[in-house]
Design brief:
single chain, Rhopdopsin 7-helix transmembrane proteins
Length: 433
């Protein structure tokens, strides 16, 4: 009776994850339905074990073992589906059916209780190891490492428990006459199982919840169409970087970008063509910029590039690299080659800058680039932040003043700060027209 109560408590503990998995069944996360079915079958198996003294032996042996075999097989299938791998359903079903057939033969042949225990633990150990191997190989797919660690501990803990059970009953331990036999080893394995099996299904629940949470966070952080940073996240990052620049005197260049003639592309090729153009544009720009910079979409065909620790000369070189990359990568759309160019407005951080202020200056420079023929980058004029007394210019401010003045005057070549290794910023670097 005591052992039956252990199995009953084990089954109820395992069932705790099931109602929490149900709300996620309509989500797009792979493997949820397999996890739900596995959880329900594991609970069924344990409840049938608890009723072993009531139901006929044939029913309890076949139903309980078959339900557990199916449950562990579905955990394996569900884990593979979760990570976007081939589920191997036929392979899992084939192995499971062979095990169930072997259980039936052992019951109706010589009623080999020891053989059934060894087969059960062999299947569980190997099934858990196979599942754990998949999880270990895919462990970096989830950013929340603690969940993956907990899941691996649960699945490998289950494998280790049944490896020990195999060793005990193979080497010298006397197999129990029945699953309800309250021998010390039998109770030990029941108690440990009552920890590892519920832990496994709770870990799968956490896996699903964490995956959905990370997807929601990604949806807030990244633009769903272009995979550039979203408007909210890029503007938040701009605020943080401006605070850092004010605090430590850092350098920041903000490049506001706009796709040239995007409306004509949208009108000619439709919204699907416009979406393709936006994706292509974002991919080309992201390949052209430094890995440390941040590229985001503000809306429509307008984007922004935050260039960290970037002096005026380097900012102009980077802006020109973006223009060149787009010019060299025309869009293939409906069998036609569609040229893509961009116009940009470049603004450098000044003391007292706000996010709105630096974006307004970049937008004014972008407007000039559009007015002067597109496919070019214009640098914003350097001015004082309102309400601040004049202060001595920093070297970066002086260089930016010189570049902006020279570009406005139409000078063919500007050497930044007179440095021997400073790149030349040509008027052609701001215009390819």
């Amino acid at each position: 009776m005591t052992t039956s109560l252990f199995f009953l408590m084990w089954g109820l503990a395992t069932a705790l994850a099931l109602p929490l998995l149900v709300p996620f069944r309509a989500s797009e996360v792979g493997g949820i339905r397999a996890f739900m079915a596995a959880n329900a079958l594991a609970v069924l198996s344990l409840l049938v074990y608890a009723a072993a003294g009531i139901v006929p032996p044939g029913v309890y042996v076949i139903v309980s073992n078959a339900a557990w075999v199916a449950a562990l097989s579905l955990v394996y299938v569900g884990v593979r589906q979760f990570f976007g791998l081939s589920p191997h359903m036929l392979r899992a079903a084939g192995v499971g059916l062979l095990c169930i057939l072997a259980f039936a033969l052992m019951l109706y042949g010589e009623d080999d209780q020891r053989g059934r225990i060894l087969l059960f633990s062999t299947f569980t150990c190997l099934g858990a190891l196979a599942t754990g191997r998949v999880i270990f190989r895919q462990r970096r797919r989830l950013k929340t490492r603690g969940v993956m660690l907990y899941l691996m501990l649960a699945i490998f803990g289950l494998a280790a428990l049944h490896a020990l059970r195999l060793a005990v009953y193979t080497v010298g331990g006397q197999a129990p006459a029945s699953m309800l036999d309250p021998s010390p080893w039998a109770l030990f394995f029941i108690v440990c199982g009552a920890v590892t099996v519920p832990a496994l299904f709770l870990a799968l629940l956490l896996l699903v919840q964490t995956s959905l949470s990370e997807q929601m966070q990604a949806a807030l952080t990244f633009d769903s169409l272009t995979r550039a940073y979203s408007r909210r996240s890029i503007l938040d990052e701009l605020e943080r970087e401006l605070q850092r620049c004010r605090r430590v005197g850092g350098k920041l260049a903000v490049l506001l970008l706009d796709i040239d003639h995007f409306k004509s592309i949208n009108d000619r090729y439709g919204h699907a063509g416009g979406d393709t153009a936006l994706r292509h544009y974002a991919q080309v720009v992201q390949r052209a910029v430094r890995a440390t910079d941040r590229f985001g979409r503000l809306g429509g065909e307008e984007f922004v590039l935050l260039m960290y620790d970037c002096d005026p000369a380097r900012a102009l070189v980077q802006a020109q690299r973006v223009c060149d990359a787009l010019r060299d990568a025309p869009l293939q759309l409906q069998g036609a080659e569609v040229p893509m160019t961009t116009s940009g407005g470049l603004a450098l951080f000044q003391r007292g800058d706000t996010a709105d202020g630096i974006l307004v200056r970049a937008d004014a420079a972008l407007y000039r680039a559009k007015q002067q023929g597109r496919d070019r980058v214009e640098m914003a004029s350097i001015g004082r932040a309102p309400g601040r007394a004049p202060q001595p210019d920093s070297p970066a401010d002086a260089a930016a003043d010189g570049i902006a003045a020279a570009l406005a005057a139409g000078v063919d070549e500007v050497i930044v700060d007179g440095a021997a290794d400073a790149p030349a910023a040509r008027q052609g670097a701001a215009s390819t027209a």
